[in-house]
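> forwarded from #structure-qc
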């Protein structure tokens, strides 16, 4: 049942239809101690105190200005013990950010490589939780130790399995490669750290669905709350919402950073780029000026050339 990366078209089709599993690189930070809950409640946008042990939720870690430091998942293992997992390569940044605010607090911060994560994605309406439970059952850990966390993407069903030990060769369902996972992420408009999510990002630019999944508007104060609340009170209007960019052709040298131009104006720049197996040209994501409406024709321009494109809302509709 395992052939990760063997066939991009087949892998992509499986993720979008019947479902498939992907081993995803995520860094894990630990927070534990008698004041762990109080500390995280003041640092995360999610209502950590409301999480029952064994449950997970998405959250933002914000700078005092309200800009994004990280987008994480917080899992409560025990009343005073938590895991925060984040895109691979960003664990140290999360650890450093939390450490700067841990003053005279009885909460210990650390990182661990013991936890491993498998993502399950399937067509909207599929029972991703059941599929992920099959993966959890195949994990080489004791009963009840693996966490199954709901992780839907816009237009897709999803769940992730977090296990405190490496998974074996057989994940209990079809395993596919990271390239297909990346194509699907971009199609769904899911932001990635260091790409769509940077220190310049206003949280709501990532989409209303991310705010709904990651922010509690009833929990009380936390670092960076003011900007989030102000944007929400204004109907979520932000300068550069993340949009999809569907290119009409490929070109040598085309890469992340290429400009999205509408007429003579630079409306944004590609932050993610992939080449789906079932489209004429590449697709990408870009924070684009809010004055540019979905369906607007544009050009993607780089040092080596330019190609016609269209700015689209995410998730991107599937090609016919």
């Amino acid at each position: 049942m395992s052939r990760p990366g063997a066939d991009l078209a087949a892998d992509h089709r499986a993720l979008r239809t019947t479902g498939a599993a992907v081993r995803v690189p995520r860094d894990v930070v630990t927070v534990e101690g008698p004041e762990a809950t109080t500390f995280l409640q003041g640092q995360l946008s999610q209502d950590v105190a409301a999480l029952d042990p064994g449950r997970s939720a998405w959250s933002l870690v914000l700078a005092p200005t309200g800009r994004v430091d990280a987008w994480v998942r917080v899992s409560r293992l025990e009343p005073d013990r938590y895991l925060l997992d984040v895109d691979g390569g960003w664990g140290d940044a999360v650890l450093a950010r939390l450490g700067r605010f841990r003053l005279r607090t009885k909460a210990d911060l650390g990182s661990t490589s013991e936890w491993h994560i498998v993502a399950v994605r399937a067509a909207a309406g599929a029972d991703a939780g059941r599929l992920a439970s099959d993966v959890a059952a195949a994990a080489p850990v004791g009963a009840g130790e693996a966490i199954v966390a709901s992780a839907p993407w816009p237009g897709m069903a999803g769940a992730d399995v977090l296990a405190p030990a490496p998974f074996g060769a057989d994940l209990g369902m079809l395993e596919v490669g990271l390239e297909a996972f990346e194509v699907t992420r971009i199609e769904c408009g899911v932001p990635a750290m260091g790409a769509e999510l940077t220190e310049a990002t206003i949280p709501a630019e990532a989409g209303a669905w991310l705010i709904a999944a990651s922010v509690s508007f009833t929990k009380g104060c936390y670092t960076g709350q003011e900007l989030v609340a102000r944007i929400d009170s204004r109907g979520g209007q932000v300068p550069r919402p993340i949009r999809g960019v569907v290119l009409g052709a490929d070109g040598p040298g085309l890469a992340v950073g290429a400009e999205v131009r509408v007429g003579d104006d630079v409306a944004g720049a590609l932050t993610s780029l992939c080449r789906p197996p079932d489209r004429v040209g590449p697709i990408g994501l870009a924070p684009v000026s809010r004055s540019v409406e979905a369906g607007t024709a544009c050009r993607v321009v780089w040092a080596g050339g330019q190609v016609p494109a269209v700015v689209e809302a995410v998730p991107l509709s599937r090609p016919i």
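QC bot note: The radius of gyration is 20 Å. The helical segments are 8-16, 36-43, 91-100, 128-138, 178-188, 208-214, 225-233.
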